[in-house]
Every structure is written in C-alpha cells, then in structure tokens.
Design goal:
The protein is mainly α. The protein contains four helices and two strands, in the order H-H-H-E-E-H. Helix content is 48%, strand content 10%. Helix 1 crosses helix 2. It is elongated, with a radius of gyration of 17 Å.
Length: 117
C-alpha cells in the first residue's frame, strides 16, 4: 500500500498515525461497503485489537461508516474519508518533493548519512 522509500537502514519504517489512517481507508475502499475487520486487518497489516481502536476513531471522525451485515459490522468509506485520502496523497507528493535533492533523488535522513571524516 504505502511504499517504504523512507526506510532507515533496511529496517521497517515506523508508520505515522496519518499513514495508518490512509492505509485503513484505502483497504476499506477496496471492499465497497463490505469491509469486515479481519479483512481490513490483513490488508493493513495490523492486529485486529489495535485496528478496532483505529477504526472506532475513524468512525467517530466520520471518515468511515459502520453497518450491520449478517449481524456483524462492515465498514465503508464516507465522502469525508475520500476527501481525507485525496488530501493525504497530495500532501505525500509535496513532502516527497520537499525532501528530494535538486537532482530529484530523495534526500537521505540524518541517521542515514555517512559520518564525516
């Protein structure tokens, strides 16, 4: 879903809250109103217990809506959630430009720079 170009020294990059929100919204969007918590958990790469808290927050913020299908909750993205995703992807593009060198290559973070000799 989200790329790991910012990955420090081969390890996994810690996802920020906005990255997690965007990932969950993208996964839910794929299921067109029938996203169950387990499917979203696999798609977002998050444990179900942690995901439930995040999904409750997204519902409270009106970025997701919940409805009962066969007695179990299923989730769908709201228009406000779509707007969040659109804005998120635009901001990611701006951030990549700001963090890149004049020659277009991504700038290395301080922790990744070679030590001065």
């Amino acid at each position: 879903m989200l790329d790991d170009r910012d990955t420090p020294r081969g390890g996994a990059r810690r996802r920020e809250a906005t990255d997690l929100y965007a990932t969950v919204l993208e996964v839910v969007k794929r299921y067109h109103g029938a996203a169950r918590i387990t499917r979203v958990s696999y798609g977002a790469g998050m444990p179900v217990d942690r995901l439930r808290v995040l999904v409750e927050r997204l519902v409270a913020l009106d970025l997701l809506r919940s409805e009962e299908i066969d007695g179990r909750p299923a989730y769908d993205i709201t228009p406000r959630g779509q707007e969040f995703l659109s804005t998120y992807w635009k901001m990611r593009a701006f951030i990549e430009v700001l963090e890149s060198n004049p020659d277009g290559r991504p700038a290395r973070r301080r922790a990744e720079r070679a030590p001065a000799q």
